[in-house]
Amino acid sequence: MSDTINLLDVVALAVDLPQHDLTRGQVGTVVEVLEPGVFEVEFSDDAGRTYAVTPVKAEYLLRLRYRPAHTA
């Protein structure tokens, strides 16, 4: 299974981003591919209210999966 991050993927922060008041584990959605390896990520609360939108490098993100990995 590929770890490639794509538009609209759900991701989690793998590191703290204190300059944006974001901490490791916060979940967001990729809303734009800014350049190779850099994504605009929108972070929203449980009610869908956006509390941060910021560029994040792919190396600081973990793509979340909602289905099991299949083995060939």
Instruction: Please compute the radius of gyration using only Cα atoms.
Output: 12 Å
- CATH architectural group: Roll
Query: How large is the count of helical segments?
Result: 0
State the CATH topology: SH3 type barrels
Adjacency order of strands in the biggest sheet: 4-3-2-1-5
DSSP strand content: 35-45%
Question: Helix fraction?
Answer: under 10%
Q: Give the tally of structural domains.
A: 1
The helix/strand order is EEEEE
- The top-level CATH class is Mainly Beta
Mean pLDDT: 93
- Seen as an oligomer or otherwise, the chain set is single chain
Number of β-strand runs: 5
For the report, how would you describe the main beta sheet?
5 strands, antiparallel
Q: What distance separates the N and C termini?
A: 10 Å
- Give the class from helix and strand content and strand pairing: mainly beta
Stretches where pLDDT is under 50 for at least 5 consecutive residues are none
Q: What coarse outline follows from CA principal-axis ratios?
A: globular
Description:
By secondary structure, the chain is mostly beta strands. It has one domain (10-63): SH3 type barrels. Helices cover 0% and strands 43% of the residues. It is built from no helices and five strands. It has strands spanning 10-13, 27-35, 38-44, 50-57, 61-63. A five-stranded antiparallel sheet has the order 4-3-2-1-5, with no helix packed on it. A hairpin with a 5-residue loop joins strand 3 (38-44) and strand 4 (50-57).
